[in-house]
Amino acid sequence: MSSTATRRALSPSPPPARPGAPVGEIPAYSERQGARWSWSGRARQICYGVIDVVLVCLGGAVAFWLRFGLENPVSLEAMSLRDPSLLLTARAYPAFLLLYCGLIVLACVGQGLYRTPREISSMEESFRVLKAVGLATSLLILFIFTAGNKEISRLVLALAGAINVITLAGWRLAKRRYIIRRARRGIGISRVLIIGAGREGHALAAWMESNRHMGYAMCGFLDKHPNGDKRVKGSIHDLRRVALAEFADEVFITPPADEQTVKEVFLEARKLHLDLHVLPDLYDGLGWRAPIHYFGGFPALRLHSEPIPAVGLAVKRLMDAVLSAIGLVLAAPLLLVACVWIRLDSPGKAIYAATRVGKKGRKFKCYKLRTMVSGADGRKDELREANERSGPFFKMENDPRVTRCGRWLRKYSVDELPQLVNVLRGEMSLVGPRPHPLDDYERYTIEDLRRLDVKPGLTGLWQVSARKDPSFETSMAFDLEYIENWSLWSDLKIIFWTFGAALRGEGQ
Asked: What phi, psi does 372 have (nearest 5°)?
């Protein structure tokens, strides 16, 4: 008889719903009953912890005697006669051994090792043991040497860690094989009744059938549409009859299942002392194997997550800061000459600061060397009809607003050098989609906003690949290709190509 069946036979019936309660209201468990039903699992976990503590103590003793007992008699009296310092050393170990036991237990709790996770392989479980023991041993070593204690042997600590990895992983492997062997013989398995013979129900049944070592055996479906499946034993209203006839231990409700159905099954499962599980809607398989996270007590399926290359982005930011700082130092003489030339060529400031749209729509002041006459922004609307680019951005090869020196500065991209300040401040990156003015940004479509998922760049894939292509769609395609296939190597290649394009004078 399984543990669930034994519990069902020995446990008293649950209390009835209070008088006057609405139909379908779920009566609450008593705290004493819930504690009694969960005690077996807690006792098992405590037992696992005790086994670990015993093995860690034995491992520590073995490591100690391997270090000191091979050259000295195995008694404290003999050790004190031969070398009095060894007695003091021996007395220092028990306290640290108790600390070590506590650290290992906490690390094993963190790795989920006080249960039998049959859904993972024995290799993965052993790797978890290695991580737990490694963490506990590292913390103990850090504590010992931070405290300035020089009596504890480093060799003893290393030996104890190695022994603990072997013993803690070994007994778990033996326990796993014992449990799996019993499950395959049909001992200790839970007989499962599945409500819902749809796609999810059949998938769950097939998984149980092919993974008998997990400890489940499907004993039938309950569904109002049999569809010729002989495993369908009846409808939901037949739950009591079928559960008793099939000696069911657990019930799984698969989608689609409405709220009222779940309540009815819950009430009947409580009367029969059956474990009840409800599978959420898996959205035609999208939710299979999806992890469940809790937000304020609410379970949520994570159907998709986009991994953030945190290390790569940190390196990219470091590269931006270092290279932009070096670039500003090297470009300072050129910028000084260019500023003097701009002031002599036309009236107005040498540095032009314009509002641009950056990552996630954030606005910032983007710096450039002024290449147009003062007040050029006010004439943009009147020149909009002569725009040579399609889409929401403006460009003219022979723009009448551009000054004489401005044409040279644009040709060799010298006018972009002040944006190294934006890169150093973190508003831009060396490589990314070019930042657009506000009036161009206001003409974006919804799809165009995807280019704002990253920081704008001083240069980009479009600049070195299709700079003279008039199509905004082409520009967008290159920007999205860069975003979706980003890597540090691609950034380095684009920077290298940019130097070549600047020297060839391909700017406009």
From this structure: -125, 170
CA distance 136 to 30: 39
From residue 439, how far is each of 314, 353, 400, 436, 478 by CA, in Å?
A: 32, 15, 20, 8, 22
CA distance 381 to 443: 13
Cα separation, 459 vs 470, in Å, equals: 17
Q: How far apart are CA 474 and CA 266, in angstroms?
A: 58
Residues 6+ apart with CB under 8 A from 97: 56, 57, 60
> Is residue 73 reached through a cis peptide bond, with omega within 30 degrees of 0 on the bond before it?
no
CATH topology for the 189-286 domain: Rossmann fold (3.40.50)
Q: Per DSSP, what are the bridge partners of residue 367?
A: 353
Q: How many angstroms separate the CA atoms of 272 and 335, rounded? A: 84
Q: Where are the alpha helices (DSSP H) in 111-198?
A: 122-146, 154-184
* Residue extents of the structural domains in the chain: 39-184, 189-286, 310-503
* pLDDT at residue number 81: 46
The angle at the Cα of 364, spanning 449 to 431, to the nearest 5 degrees, equals 65
Instruction: Output the CA angle 433-434-438, nearest 5 degrees.
Output: 120
Supply φ then ψ for residue 73, to 5 degrees.
Answer: -60, 145
DSSP of 360-393: GG-EEEEEEE--B-TTGGGGTGGGGGG--S-SS-
DSSP state of 66: I
- Inter-residue contact 253 to 262 (CB < 8 Å): yes
For the chain, the first-to-last Cα distance in angstroms comes to 83
Confidence of residue 404 (pLDDT cuts 50, 70, 90): confident
How many residues are given for the chain?
508
49-86 tens-digit pLDDT: 899 999 999 988 888 788 776 444 444 444 444 544 44
Is the separation of the CB atoms in 216 and 190 below 8 Å? yes
For residue 219, give the nearest of 250, 196, 240 by alpha carbon.
250
d(CA 213, CA 179): 8
Taking the model in full, what pTM does it have?
A: 0.50
Tell me how far apart the alpha carbons of residues 227 and 503 are, in angstroms, rounded to a whole number.
Answer: 74
